[in-house]
Amino acid sequence: MKITTWNVNSLTARLQHVLDWTATNPVDLLCLQELKLTDDKFPLDVLREAGYAHCAVFGQKTYNGVAIMSRQPLRDIVKNIAGFADEHSRVIAATLDSPAGELRLVNGYFVNGQAPGTDKFEYKMSWLRGLRDYLREELAAHPRLVLLGDFNIAPEDRDSFDPEGLRETIHHTTQERDHFHKLVELGLCDSFRMFEQPEKSYSWWDYRMLGYQKNRGLRIDHILVSELLKQDVKACSIDRAPRKWKQPSDHAPVTLEI
To answer: What is the pTM of this model?
Structure first.
């Protein structure tokens, strides 16, 4: 089974990219972030024709929005973080029944935030605390769990093109990295780091200043797996190719194989 996370930065603008990529990479589950459209605008018919007959969608006009696209039925769909009041569409969870047992997927578009000390940074901190409390309960109920999405956190220095110059700036702060490591402490593993990876492997590049061409990127899109799933992980990789396409998302898809 292959599971992909991809921040498409507007599904309306990038729908053809999604169709083209899945045509050559027919993954079983595709988790999208930053849909930037409402549920009624989600292109269900087109995606069903592409093989994704089952879609769990939590959209929002202009901003945010997440979806899980699946070739197999999904059940027990939950939107946003239980117990955390939030007006933004950032999290969707669903269960897939597989031959190996049920698989719980939690797809998140984590808060971006701004500089430490701002209201938006404090919102990010409280959101991350709420997510951790929610995941603690999810893991207890669903030992085969995958947490994936755009985390907006570069967890280590090697996940940034300029770790010294950007130290303690947004995505690189000690507080954000502490939250990432606390997710790991719940019993989750960064699947990308389970394997030898090329140096300077990133999943996001700024549109400005020739960010992609100069590989001035960050690894902020992650797939974390529970301890019970860890033994089944076969590979995890970033596909940089779509970032070269015309009018691309600023993120690349990341794929887990179990």
So the answer is: 0.98
